[in-house]
Amino acid sequence: MTMDNALERRPNPDDLNDRGLSETQDERVSYLRAGHTLRSWLLTTDHKRIAILYLISVTLFFFIGGAAAALVRADLLTPQADLLTNEGYNRAFTLHGVIMVWFFLIPSIPNTFGNFLIPLMIGARDLAFPRLNLLSWYIYMLGGLFTVFVLIAGGVDTGWTFYTPLSSMFSNGHVVMVAVAVFVVGFSSILTGLNFIVTVHKLRAPGMSWGRLRLFVWAHYATSLILVLATPVLSVTLALVAAERLFGLGIFDPKLGGDPLLFQHLFWFYSHPAVYIMVLPALGVVSELVAASARKPVFGYRFIAGSSIAIAIIGFLVWGHHMFVAGQSMYASAVFSFLSLAVAVPSGIKVYNWTATLYKGHIELDPPFFFAASFIGLFVVGGLTGLVLAMLAVDVHLHDTYFVVAHFHYIMVGGTVSAYFGALHFWWPKMSGRIYPRIWGRLAAIFIFLGFNLTFFPQFILGYLGMPRRYHVYDPSFQVLHVLSSAGASILGVAYLMPFTYLFWSMRYGAPAGPNPWDVRGLEWTVPSPPPKHNFEEIPVVTGPPYDYPLEREGDQGEAGDAAEGNAAEGNAGSRA
Amino acid sequence: MSLVRTLSLVWAALLGLLLLTLGASFALTGPASLAASLAIAVAKAALIYWFFMHLREEGGLVRLAALGVAAWLVIFTLLTSADYAMRP
Amino acid sequence: MSERIELHEPFSDAAQQHEAGMLGMYVFLGTEMMLFGGVFAVIFVTRALHPAEFVAASQKLHVFIGALNTGVLLTSSFAVALAVAFARAARARLAAGLLVAAAGLGLVFLGLKAFEYTLEIHEGLLPLFSRPANFSGPVEHLFMNLYLVATSLHAIHMTIGVVLLTGLAWRIARGGVPLPGRVALVENSGLYWHFVDVIWVFLYPALYLAR
Fold it and tell me: Cβ–Cβ of C138/A255 closer than 8 Å?
């Protein structure tokens, strides 16, 4: 990013006191200024505006879920039950789980950055069904506000997994209402997934073949497949739990010949693939950040793209690993254990290819690179501990301990949330049209990384030593590690708030970004920042591969060599000096 | 209009399959009955999808979408029943 | 014919719009299929756990009313398929008439279903309306619970379909839906109706014909 160019792009280059306060020419015709009324936002069908609506609401729910996490961590500072009652603690971690899973992690990257970027990246004016897109946001808000209402009404204490028979027969929280809220928000997921699938199939610009799609788009396509195939099963499962509670259906009740474990089959058929709904878009973001940081063609493009699809498919075959100690048949467990190990292969492919892409790249220490690098490290730790848990015998020791909690937080928070912030820092100049101070971005990334590790690494040890999850009264010998974890969480909390100060600051005081502030390749960097309402004046014609950065060495063969040939039709501004 | 004739034939075939599955339920029991009724239901669904729901006219993509869902239901049922079939 | 199709943002030609609409509708029906897939999985697991009791409970259902209803539904699907064919040929009145006929058959289905429910209430078999003590055993109770959940979920979809087809027929008859310009509306409503039919095609043997 070259500041000098940015300064020249100010609205009044001669006025040294004008630090970008006034509008640029691009901003005057951008999607942000296409209508100023509240109505023009709430009834918009522009995918970019809907992305902004999602960005605001998803971030809001992130902080609500974070507040619940803060309560949990505060209560765990001491081995006694001093801050929260048993009931209150159960409700706090349930609320944390429900909000973070369904109202932050699942919609986070797809509905904000996917919505904003997919049409721009494939050369389309909008998603295939713009009105469905808006409807999906309203459904999301309906489900979200209903959840907040349930929270005020007293909450629910089953954990986000709603295991039967606790949820169906014994829990006295508002299980039915939360089930309704999650049922409702499921339709939002389905509509988004449907929209992305049809858009990627049918609205690609001329010349934008599947082999020229950006890896971000590939990842979102794979995510959408899971969204549409898995979410309905969750909907029907929650409907059955609600019916079981209200009418004593008996499907999950052994007294009537039902089977409580059947709930776990139905639930995890959705919820394990849902983990990949949360992480696949993050993998797509990191593929983009890595390519942009290295500024050279992606190593193993086909393998990264294919591994996204492989994760989506194999991810559907592993759900039984949540039930190793729940009474599932041992033989079925063995099959699920094997398949769970297999899903690590495509994830590994991605990590190796990112590393190879970065090797000898032109890396500048921009904030997006910091987030990408911390993502890779945390994802590797989270992924490898997942292999540990997929082993049948080891899982007997570690099941339902803090080891599991640490494992999935490394993937969900270390992975997805890092990627969410990485995406925010990478595409913020495109979305807002302004540049934020890079030094603050770097600091935020470093604090998030440190705070995260301090919070969750001790939990691996806690779990290995035998601290069970979902307990708030614990053996005093665990206290040191819990205090470390809570201290880390406070750093993490502050670090998550940091970006919002300087990003808001940049909207008013930041220098105009220009179309391509990072000097990278891709269709979204060929349109002005912020983009005009209809994205492209004319639908672009694509003639070259993605990531067509120039190569330095002559005589290179293979994928990189191919990539260097056809030049970008995108007329890219970024020839590196 | 030959299309009307085709659709009428499909309708007749569907009603024929209905009688067949009804008859099979009186003739067969146990797993054979389940297999027969499932197979006939799949045949009926295939006729409806192919002729009534325009799969015949559509490209590979839409056909794939229809088949993909069927494949996922098979995965779901197979892996779930793997547990129930192999429990001690 | 393709020039007469109305185009909407963000599509650039009629074929693209048609394929996108078709794919979107198929993906949506796929999600509906997965929704019912959960119910079918529960039915099959229950049968696998208690084969004998499941068959005994299934034998108490009114198998011929079910068969009649299947026939009614298959016929209504036939009517919808014809309606789409005529809508594509711009024969609006005929298309509207066939849609009304299909919706009428849908009402016949729902009426027969309601009649069946009343019979079951008299026999003390329908959950919510009968005392649990009337059941011969817990599995019969569970089976009838499943039966009620599955058939009522299907009936909800049927009701939506009847409203959809009636409204569409009314709009076509009033000239509110120019044909074949907006034939996609007829096609998609038709797809939904056929899908609801397909669900019943599987529900009928799964519940009524377990032997």
Answer: yes
| CB neighbour list of residue A446: distance below 8 Å, 6 or more residues apart | A370
Same domain, B34 and B67: no
Q: What total number of domains does chain B contain?
A: 2
Stretch A105-117: mean pLDDT? 96
Answer yes or no: do C23 and A202 touch at CB < 8 A: yes
Is B51 in the same domain as B65?
A: no
Question: Which residues in chain C are contacts of B34 at CB distance < 8 A?
Answer: 47, 210
Does C1 map to a domain? no
- CATH number of the CATH domain containing C135: 1.20.120.80
Q: Is the ipTM of this complex over 0.85?
A: yes
Indicate the fold that domain A43-551 takes in CATH. Cytochrome C Oxidase; Chain A (1.20.210)
B81 and B48, same domain (yes or no): no
Percent of chain C whose pLDDT exceeds 70:
97
What range does the domain containing B85 cover? 58-88
pLDDT digits over A431-454, tens only? Answer: 999 999 999 999 999 999 999 999
pTM to 2 decimal places: 0.92
- Round the CA-based radius of gyration of chain C to a whole number and report it: 20
The average pLDDT across C97-118 equals 95
pLDDT on residue A19: 53
How far is it, in rounded angstroms, from Cα A443 to Cα C21? 47
Q: Does B80 touch chain C (CB under 8 A)?
A: yes
Contact A129 C24 (CB under 8 A): yes
Q: Which residue of B has its CA nearest to C84?
A: B52
Instruction: Give the whole-angstrom CA distance, residue A404 versus residue A97.
Output: 14
| C171, part of any domain | yes
Q: Can you give the residue ranges of every domain in chain A?
A: 43-551
First to last CA, chain B: 60
Cβ-Cβ contacts under 8 Å for B15 (sequence gap 6 or more): C71, C74, C75
Task: Count other Cβ atoms within 10 Å, centred on residue A284.
Answer: 31
Range of the domain at C29: 10-208
Q: Which of A265, A324, A337, A339 to mutate to test the interface with B (most CBs of B within 10 A)?
A: A265
Q: Please state the length of chain B.
A: 88
Ramachandran class of B54: left when φ > 0, alpha when ψ lies in -120 to 50, beta otherwise: left
Confidence of residue A550 (pLDDT cuts 50, 70, 90): confident
**Confidence band for A81, pLDDT divided at 50, 70 and 90:** confident
Portion 172-201 of C in contact with B at CB < 8 A: 187, 190-191, 194-195, 197-198, 201
CA–CA min distance B69, chain A (Å) = 7
Contact A328 B83 (CB under 8 A): yes
Mean pLDDT of A507-526: 91
